[in-house]
């Protein structure tokens, strides 16, 4: 029997995004292997492969199967195509997974019978200025009132919270993150309002995750809050149990 994941719990694995030995790549299914081949950028490919291997290792524990036999399903909320949030259907319910990559870090979240969305972001500027158009008017005012040196980290905190919510709902960036207003970066994470939110309107439960000074991360669950267990995981050590 596989391990039991309590339905009131969400487990979050924090992993380095380094390359894995080639034999571990064979855990991926044909579609994943094809996606990996098409990711030209070496770092992007490494992040994708490591994220999926970790998601398989984690799901296998609770689906009572082996990592190579885990069957992920995903159905896009917008076009019903096979992409988006990951699910694993088991006799004991549905395992919901969410994966996020940024620079050198990967997060994989798993919960039973509750949808979750996780996001990690490195505190770094991607263009030449902070893209404040991703923020709601209320959030922009909070950011503008902060001393300039604190604005980038505050923006990244906002971004991680919003993207975690949009990943939990399965919308991703099809919806504008500026329609969501979340609590100010230095107070506990909460969704305050959401303009033009498409149904269903399940309650959103939001938490910041502890990922060190160089990153910001958040987890959202829909319908109910879960008790979050965060764990640092070494992919090679996990894979050595195979
Ligand atoms: C979700 C999204 C914001 C993630 O951005 P990103 O820069 O790839 O960031 P992350 O690394 O945090 O997340 C990657 C994971 O998001 C998940 N994901 C993708 N689309 C998702 C969605 N709509 N909802 C929830 N999760 C989604 C995938 O599991 C992916 O992991 P994978 O690379 O192993 O497949 C972005 O991919 C997005 O907006 N996707 C929807 C795009 C779209 O146009 N969809 C409509 C098509 S009809």
UniProtKB/TrEMBL annotation:
Residues 116-219 form the 4'-phosphopantetheinyl transferase domain. Coiled coil: none annotated. The keyword NAD does not apply. The keyword Transferase applies. Keywords: Transferase. GO terms for molecular function: transferase activity. PANTHER family: L-AMINOADIPATE-SEMIALDEHYDE DEHYDROGENASE-PHOSPHOPANTETHEINYL TRANSFERASE, PHOSPHOPANTETHEINE TRANSFERASE. Belongs to the P-Pant transferase superfamily. Gsp/Sfp/HetI/AcpT family. This is 4'-phosphopantetheinyl transferase. It comes from Micromonospora gifhornensis.
């Amino acid at each position: 029997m596989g391990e039991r994941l309590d339905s009131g719990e969400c487990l979050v694995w924090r992993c380095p995004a380094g390359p894995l030995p080639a034999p571990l790549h064979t855990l991926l299914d044909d579609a994943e292997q094809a996606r990996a081949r098409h990711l030209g950028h070496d770092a992007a490919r490494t992040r994708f492969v490591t994220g999926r291997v970790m998601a398989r290792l984690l799901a296998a524990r609770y689906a009572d199967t082996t990592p190579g036999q885990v069957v992920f399903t995903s159905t896009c909320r917008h076009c019903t195509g096979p992409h988006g949030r990951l699910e694993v259907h088991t006799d004991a319910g549905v395992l919901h997974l969410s994966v996020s990559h940024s620079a050198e870090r990967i997060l994989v979240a798993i919960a039973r019978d509750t949808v979750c969305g996780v996001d990690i972001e490195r505190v770094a500027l991607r263009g030449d200025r902070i893209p404040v158009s991703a923020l709601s008017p209320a959030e922009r005012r909070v950011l503008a009132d902060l001393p300039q040196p604190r604005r980038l980290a505050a923006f990244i905190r906002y971004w991680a919270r919003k993207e975690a919510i949009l990943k939990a709902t399965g919308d991703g960036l099809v919806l504008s993150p500026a329609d969501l207003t979340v609590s100010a970066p230095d107070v506990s994470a909460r969704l305050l309002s959401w303009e033009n939110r498409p149904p269903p309107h399940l309650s959103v439960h939001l938490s910041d995750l502890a990922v060190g000074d160089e990153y910001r991360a958040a987890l959202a669950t829909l319908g109910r809050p879960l008790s979050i267990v965060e764990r640092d995981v070494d992919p090679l050590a996990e894979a050595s149990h195979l």
